[in-house]
Amino acid sequence: MKSDLDLVCDLVRECGLFIKDADRGHLHVDAKSGRANFVTEYDKQVQERLRVGLREIMPDAHFVGEEGSTQMFAPVGKYFIVDPIDGTTNFIKDYRFSCVSVALVVDGAAEFGVVYNPYADEMFCARRNHGAFCNGKRLHVSSETLEDGIVVFGTAPYHEELKEQTFNLAYAYFRKAMDVRRSGSAALDLCTIAAGRAELFFELVLSPWDYAAGGLIVTEAGGLVSDCDGRPLAYDRPCSVLARNKTVRPLALGDATSAFS
């Protein structure tokens, strides 16, 4: 008999393959509030598939999704926190680096997380206190220092007021690390840290559906996850995200040298 996590992985894989096989002539792209913030018909359809499927797997759990009107998060109870397509701009542009992300949060703590990249056929998953895996292989964060590492970051594109601060910090990391990367999917960036492919990730504001699953996957792979001030991640509101291995010492926001002067 399959576990609840196995059943969620099956559902997420099904939704991911639906995204991969999308009819690109009928994406029906709409703008949301904020710069470069879009939603497609596929976001809406995948979210509804997840809402129905997750209710069948765990009828007593609430549902919090990125798209449309859904249940608000509370610190007590079971909540699925879902991003139907993380990396929607990538999806619109056929950049082929997007994923489906589902986390189960129980009484304020992430219980399990699933992130599936259908383009690479990589299924990342973790259950609290049971480790993190990709396609069944256990994940471990790297042990490289910042000087020998790669930094991945997000630009918080919906928040113009954070543009300069973000790129100042990215420039500071660029000067100290081997190199920097910007992918367009925070959930997959977190899995990249968990898999030991990069050493640090930051973004100055994200929503819980962007990081709920990926944050647990990093933790279960032996990494450290917090907001940029070292506080636990919030599930009831947006916050900054900093994920790293235990060797890397992150820069403080005040250490960033201006790249615009």
Cα radius of gyration in angstroms: 17 Å
Low-pLDDT ranges: none
For the record, the CATH architecture of the largest domain stands as 2-Layer Sandwich
How many domains, in number, for the residues? 2
Strand order of the largest sheet: 3-4-5-6-7-8-9
The top-level CATH class of the largest domain is Alpha Beta
Global shape:
globular
How many H/I helical runs?
A: 6
Say how many strands there are. 14
Oligomer: single chain
Explain this structure to me?
The protein has 6 helices and 14 strands. A 7-stranded mixed beta sheet has the order 3-4-5-6-7-8-9, sandwiched between helices. It has 2 domains: 4-138, Fructose-1,6-Bisphosphatase, Chain A, domain 1 (2-Layer Sandwich), CATH 3.30.540; 146-255, D-Maltodextrin-Binding Protein, domain 2, CATH 3.40.190. The chain is globular, with a radius of gyration of 17 Å. It has 261 residues and is α+β, with helices and mostly antiparallel strands. The mean pLDDT is 92.
Features:
single chain, 261 residues, alpha+beta, Fructose-1,6-Bisphosphatase, Chain A, domain 1, 2 domains, 6 helices, 14 strands, 26% strand
Could you give a short description of this structure?
With 261 residues, this protein is of the alpha+beta class. Helices cover 29% and strands 26% of the residues.
What topology emerges from the helices and strands here?
Elements: H1 4-20, E1 30-31, E2 38-39, H2 41-57, E3 62-65, E4 78-86, H3 88-92, E5 99-106, E6 109-117, E7 122-127, E8 132-134, E9 137-138, E10 150-153, H4 163-176, E11 179-181, H5 186-194, E12 200-206, H6 208-220, E13 224-226, E14 239-244
Parallel strand pairs: 3-4, 10-11, 10-12
Antiparallel strand pairs: 1-2, 4-5, 5-6, 6-7, 7-8, 8-9, 12-14, 13-14
Helix pairs in contact: 1-2, 5-6
